[in-house]
Amino acid sequence: MIHQPASSFYEAQAGEFILEAEELLKLRETLTKVYVQRTGNRVISEDMERDVFMSATEAQAHGIVDLVAVENEKTGDSI
Questions:
Q1: Positive or negative torsion for Cα 31, 34, 38, 40
Q2: Which helix (H) or strand (E) holds 9?
Q3: Domain that holds residue 26
Q4: How far apart are alpha carbons 60 and 29 in whole angstroms?
């Protein structure tokens, strides 16, 4: 699953909320840059607008993971 960064800040003053929001925006920008660099997918930020669930093979096709382990039917080992 990919999604945008989130926080749950409770019982804080307005200034703390603003600082938290600024940090989340910085984190989002950094994560987006890393995803774009690793996947080559420039629209990754659109995917981060909502929760995106995907299988291991879908994540591989999306460029988020390099390899997907598969079970060897004869031995039961993951390869």
A1: positive
A2: none
A3: 1-79
A4: 22
